[in-house]
Sequence to fold (363 residues):
Amino acid sequence: MKHNYSNIQRNLTVLVLFICCILSAEAQDVHFTFSNAQITNDGLDDYYDVDVMIESSVDFKLGSGQLYLTYNTAAFGANVSTSNNLTYSQPAGSVLAEVYGFPAYKDFIQNDNTTSRVSLAFQQGVSSGAITANNVTATPKVLFHVRIKFEDVNEDPMIAFETGAVYLDQFYTACGSSTSAGLADCSGEPGVQLLNDTFDSSNAADTTAPVITLAGANPQEIVLGSGYSELGAITDDESQITIDDSEFIDAVGTYTIYYDATDIVGNAATQVTRTVNVVPVLSIGENEWENVSIYPNPSERKFLISGLTDKVDLEIFNIEWKRIQYIQGYQSEQLDISSIESGVYFVKLISGTAIKTIRMIKI
Fold:
């Protein structure tokens, strides 16, 4: 009997490569964690926000997938998808937000699996060849974001991955031709099922401290006798801010205002401070300033200070009291303001301890 050893050898080679690919795919692990868990408020309702992260020790292009999350119904109510309490989103920079001519992923489906468990699934949109690089690596990356509205914010969210055996192994490598940049043909060229997924729910608790951002100028300048005027501040999660202005007195000097915030679960923000400078102002009737004025006012391109008898230091501030220009030893020369935006400005003149502030309009 005559054998075609060339064909046999070729078939064995293909078989070995196929087995190696299967073993390699099965050796891949895919690991899921939570990140940036935070309880937020939109001014009306409280929410639990969290990023779902994905990583693997073997780099690969992600195909379709499905995850199950469990939660505390005392906090969120039952059936969070049906009740429209859950938002499943793909923020910019996440794996599921990738676009290669067409969206790389599509059909973002959420379903209540039980009254306290929800399913989040997605499909691949473009062929593996269109995905330009491995998007699952050893560096954790945001897969998607979840927001769930509280029914009782005082209850523990108890968010966790479902790790029961029937819910495992729901992810695949990218399907479709590796040389095609078009839409995915997952029926003809399916991806490989990943069989070594693991989960870590330890970062599901809100440990993210709020961040305070000051509104208005810092430092803030107040004319003597005006009293303290709070410019305000906000937090990124609507946590309530406490403001300590007890150091302030209406006297010439420099004072510090302290801003603190603690979210609903006790995470404290880094304290933020504002410097307040109280500056003297001469009474209108003092002869050395009474004839000093800006000309023209409003000004379009240039202005000058008329009525000065001596040189002064001149500062220009915007409406938020941020200094945009300073001139030492100014007397009466024209100043070019053509490069600044239209709006209201303040021109401060300083001569020793005497100060005069004039409102100027740039048109």
Observations:
- The chain has two helices and 24 strands.
